[in-house]
Amino acid sequence: MRIDLFPTPAEAAESRLRDRVAAVVDVLRASTTVTTAWSRGADRIIPFGSIEEAKDLFETLPRGSALLCGERNGMKIDGFDLGNSPAEFTEEVVGGKTLLFASSNGTRLMARADGARRKIVASFVNLAAAAEHLSAGGVDVAIVCAGDLGQFNLEDFVCGGALVAEIAARTSVEVSDAARAARMLWDAAYRLRIRELFDDASHGRDLAEIGFGADLDLCAARDAIPVVPVVTDGRITRAPA
Amino acid sequence: MRIDLFPTPAEAAESRLRDRVAAVVDVLRASTTVTTAWSRGADRIIPFGSIEEAKDLFETLPRGSALLCGERNGMKIDGFDLGNSPAEFTEEVVGGKTLLFASSNGTRLMARADGARRKIVASFVNLAAAAEHLSAGGVDVAIVCAGDLGQFNLEDFVCGGALVAEIAARTSVEVSDAARAARMLWDAAYRLRIRELFDDASHGRDLAEIGFGADLDLCAARDAIPVVPVVTDGRITRAPA
């Protein structure tokens, strides 16, 4: 099985995703939060690239059935119901609801039409589950890091490397340069220090500074939420009964 | 001093290079070859993004004064005088000459008009000299990896990390996430194993396969060529006497 890793979304061109399963990695925080929301019983999660698109769809849905979620610069968007903090997404709040989700990087990438066969949402909280899903599929894998407004970020790259290591523990793999580099960094520096990774990462420090330090502990909880949200046709939905 | 590192040229947008000194890193092989050619007495080196532009300028120059150099897919371009192998650039061949140089990644990046105050050419052969130049300047630094046709490559990222480590040994620095990751990889895995780095890198393996294995030893020779080619106004020229 081939594993490519793309440190930023721009590198993950359509031609490189075709016939792949793509894993969208936005550790701080969209991948973690979407996975949390899914485990807490949200009925559907629809990722968006823009605030306006989310609002437009929201207007068409029955009142009370949906919540607007997302952030800009880390903070909840004006007029939205929820921000991007996993702690907000309790069963009481999101159970049975449709979540329209517009984060700056992760949901934009989940929503992108880019030729991948399907996408899954991956982060440290569902690391083993995501690796299990990807290695069982027998399909070549593209790990796409959300990064930070087009720039490389440390936590997504290292989490991508963790995913490479976990897949390689389950099946035989051939890896790209970036997948190799990311895995080496995970193995050498952060395998036993996920929380410290966020202190080394500029976005982790920024989040702590604006008051989301507690989120970092949630995002560092390896394998705490063993579910794998799958994005199909632009949304994450429960299979029909 | 601030150090940013861009794993691919696309991330190094003009707004991020303004007022910076940029170090262009294309270890295999343009940075190494340009530095070799410069140390062997080339009079001018003019980098190009396209073969046609190089040919057009060549036609305007006095016969015998200039050489067309460069590669596509690692091989010398049809009708060109030299390829991209540092071994070809001897004093006998390039001394006193103008070199018009069109490689696939590195010279394209050197030629790019992107707002950097100036650019230097860096690789393992001039690592300490380049770090000395950058740390002495007192100007924020942008390390731009040439990568491979827009994709991350291992050897440029790690060499960029080596440059971060060498600058940090000389002056106090504040680093971006990518600069930190690259430096960690250098320190943890490759500081004493540059030649093995090329065996781990896909482009290194490709070059060995098409017959350029000997070039890899030249490109791994740390600090063998302690000169720093500076690109100003799109060319590398000796200061007027």
Overview of this protein structure:
The structure is a homodimer of 241-residue chains. Chain A is an alpha/beta fold and 241 residues long. Chain A has 11 helices and 11 strands. In chain A, the strands form 2 sheets. In chain A, strands 9-1-8-2-7-10 form a 6-stranded mixed sheet. The longest helix of chain A is centred in the C-terminal third of the chain and has 15 residues, at 154-168. Chains A and B meet through helix 7 and helix 8 of A and helix 7 and helix 8 of B.
Structure described in brief:
Chain A is of the alpha/beta class. Chain A has helices at 14-17, 30-39, 51-60, 91-94, 106-111, 127-137, 154-168, 177-190, 194-200, 202-209, 213-219; strands at residues 2-6, 21-25, 44-47, 66-72, 75-76, 98-102, 118-122, 141-145, 174-175, 230-231, 236-237.
List keywords for this structure.
homodimer, five-stranded mixed β-sheet, 241 residues, alpha/beta
Question: What order do the helices and strands come in, and which of them pair?
Answer:
Two copies of one chain form a homodimer.
Chain A: E1 2-6, H1 14-17, E2 21-25, H2 30-39, E3 44-47, H3 51-60, E4 66-72, E5 75-76, H4 91-94, E6 98-102, H5 106-111, E7 118-122, H6 127-137, E8 141-145, H7 154-168, E9 174-175, H8 177-190, H9 194-200, H10 202-209, H11 213-219, E10 230-231, E11 236-237
